[in-house]
Amino acid sequence: xxxxxxxxxxxxxxxFPVLAxxxxxxxxxxxxxxxxxxxxxxxxxxNTYLLSGLVFVEDGETLTIEAGTVxxxxxxxxxxxxxxxxxxxxxxxxxxxxxxxxxxxxAEADDVDDPDxxxxxxxxxxxxxxxxxxxxxxxxxxxATGENNIEGIDATTEPRGIYGGGSNPxxxxxxxxxRYVSIRHGGAVIGADNEINGLTMAGVGRGTTxxxxxxxxxxxxxxxxFGGTVNTRYLISAFAGDDAFDYDEGFRxxxxxxxxxxxxxxxxxxxxxxxxxxxxxxRPYARPTIMNATYIGRGASSTGGKDNNALIFRDNAGGSYxxxxxxxxxxxxxxxxxxxxxxxxxxxxxxxDAGDLAFRYNILGRFGAGSSPADLGGDFHTRDLLANxxxxxxxxxxxxxxxxxxxxLGLDPRPGSTxxxxxxxxxxxEPRNSGFFTDVDYAGAFGxxxxxxxxxxxxxxxxxxxxxxxxxxxxxxxxxxxxxxxSLAQNSPNxxxxxxxIDYTVSxxxxxxxxxxxxxxxxxxxxxxDIRLPGHYTEHWDAQHLSSGVYFxxxxxxxxxxxxxxxxxxxxxxx
Length: 575
Fold this sequence. Notes:
Elements: E1 5-6, E2 29-32, E3 40-43, E4 48-51, E5 54-57, E6 62-65, E7 70-73, E8 84-87, E9 92-96, E10 103-107, E11 133-136, E12 148-149, E13 162-163, E14 176-184, E15 189-191, E16 194-195, E17 199-202, E18 209-216, E19 223-226, E20 232-238, E21 245-248, E22 254-261, E23 271-274, E24 289-296, E25 311-314, E26 319-322, E27 325-327, E28 334-336, H1 348-353, E29 357-360, E30 363-364, H2 373-376, H3 380-387, E31 394-395, E32 400-404, E33 412-415, H4 457-460, E34 487-488, E35 499-506, E36 510-517, E37 523-532, E38 535-542, E39 549-559, E40 562-573
Parallel strand pairs: 1-32, 2-4, 3-6, 4-7, 5-8, 6-9, 7-10, 8-11, 9-14, 10-14, 11-17, 14-18, 17-19, 18-20, 19-21, 20-22, 21-23, 22-24, 23-25, 24-26, 24-27, 25-28, 26-29, 27-30, 30-31
Antiparallel strand pairs: 12-13, 15-16, 32-33, 34-35, 35-38, 36-37, 36-39, 39-40
């Protein structure tokens, strides 16, 4: 079983021996201010959108974003205001990307076609370059009034920052769809001591769809919830400056397949879980259920920075973790704040005693604090919880296929074939009969498939060692067309010495993606990633950066968010 761990910072000379993506043709840049979202507004992938200032999607308005669209945010406007996209109560966002054509939110300075522009120029300054995304809904929260104003926005001057349903909450409230969305380089300070989280969900209801969303290199938390009932799947928090997953004010819902990896020099808890603010023992209690999480810390032997612990529950927070993996944290695994007799029963030990907090069937790997329940528990009752055989937690190496904090050095969070994550006798079945949870036969966020591939920044920037979805071994025969007029010709010349031409035809307006793979299934170039009108096209591709060998090129045509046509062909490069 091959397994290795790397923590050394990679130098510019080590990055990407092969081309990650070809430069796409420059697209028109459309600047968007608060006044530009009116009624039903659409962003399309043939433009790049530049947000300026606080841009609100207000009550009754819907912002629809096409798959493959890039939206950038200014660091500060002329007025000195930072940038964020805020979906107010009653507003909706429909950002429905695909695995091949994700929707990217990033900083104005980020060239998404150049993996070396921001991250390697100044890795420590690649956070906080714009704000982030804030969703505000009408689901229940546990403040005294049932409402609150989102942090950093002054309620006296900006009433659109309100969230929570007050005395008449709607836990089925619908703020829209975020699916296959990557949010990068955010976390600018929006108010005094208030950085924006990558994705903030405040009072967001379960009618909202949050699936396959990544927050990459954010200055503050990756994800933060303030109450609400939204359910989520397939979330990634990568290299956040503070916590990966943070909740407060009575957050609930059902959640599966969460993955976090923390910066080797920054980052606090992977999960910082609070129950209430005003009052701390407000109802409803925070009681989310989280299944199949994989949290990777800063490294068990890392030093400096904040205390890097896996989970903390406090301020009367409940919540449950099942079938999850926690490893490579500098400190301990779990802390549950105990009763402070001077304030009354306001702390999370009360939720543990009441059955509102559970930690079962989990795997605890390498921790700087040690390797026993006494070492890994942040307090006495937590140590007892970890030592209790009935909870079925295990302290053992999860044997992930590769742990690395650096590009091109082999991050692979899937469990190896001999990993204890595959022990079906130590897995908990679906904890609730809700129909939400997917029944899988492994602990942690990943099984044999790396669902974060293709669409995430981690994939695009070369962190993963995993190959993309395999290319079919037998390419279609040259000259065979789809019955509705789509076709991909054999490249010419073939074999070729340095350059070749790739011809194809599209019969309706489509997003076309042509990528080149080596025999290991690794993507080595992107030839086209753009909208094409009906017609015949020839792409001239230069392969001088590659060595001689056999390669496959893959054609995908996507219309209306669905991939309708896929062709694969083989080419031979001779130098």
